[in-house]
Amino acid sequence: MRKIAAYSLLVCLLFASVSFAAVTGAEVPKGEEPLLITNAGQGPGGKMGRLLVARAGVVEQLTYNAEPKPEDIAGGGYKTILVVIGSSAKGLGASGITIDQEIDRLHAIMEKAKELNIPVVAAHIEGKARRGKPGSADERSIDAILPYAAHIVVNKEGDLDKKFTRFGEEHSIPVSYLDNAMDLNAFAKTMYAK
Asked: I need a labelling partner for 138 at 20 to 30 A (CA). Which of 12, 38, 48, 63 fits?
């Protein structure tokens, strides 16, 4: 009997956590289409972000490009760019590039977005798994994107040191917080609410 009660409680808690997605902090920005989703650092978060936004079912014109070049930004007609930040040695290796090359690419595409006045949403959704020591690939990827952000959305677990909060305050960039990565789905639903 105790096992059944414990199992029932666990199921209720699971549904409660899924049903009440938490996005707090700054008001979610209004997104425009077409939306480009990409990653910074060659981590797996970009694909996770694409899946979560696609499952939200609110974006009709969505493109995922893991490694866009400036000409892709210029020719895509994008109105919003969502950059999911997080590095992976495996991802960098599979791409055949170093973190220095990745940072150069990120600067080039962010400069093109700035030139074209395309708002960038910097998303750090994977929490502390995609944080590191100063100078690490994760931190360099974060530092490459935040200066270009019109809005920051971060998994609370990834902001325990308040890096994102402080950056937002110092540069007047709104910051929204997710309880977990899955809440990017709720963020997207609000961002693209009709």
From this structure: 63
Q: What are the backbone dihedrals phi and psi of residue 98, each rounded to the nearest 5 degrees, phi first?
A: -95, 170
E-strand stretches of 77-191: 80-85, 120-124, 151-155, 175-178
Per-residue pLDDT of 128-169, as tens digits, reads 989 999 999 999 999 999 999 999 999 999 999 999 999 999
List, in sequence order, every residue forming a beta bridge with 178; answer none if it has no partner. Answer: 23, 155
- Given a cut of 70, whether residue 48 has pLDDT beyond it is yes
Order the strands of the 62-64 sheet from edge to edge.
Answer: 23-25, 175-178, 151-155, 120-124, 80-85, 35-40, 62-64
Give the 3-state secondary structure of residue 36: strand
Sign of the alpha-carbon torsion through 23, 28, 34, 36: negative
CA 106, 111, 113, 119 dihedral sign is positive
Q: Is 37 helix (H, G, I), strand (E, B) or coil?
A: strand
pLDDT over 70, % of the chain: 89
| Alpha carbons 194 and 177: distance in angstroms, whole number | 22
Distance between CA atoms of residues 191 and 102, nearest Å? 28
Domain layout of the chain by residue ranges: 22-191
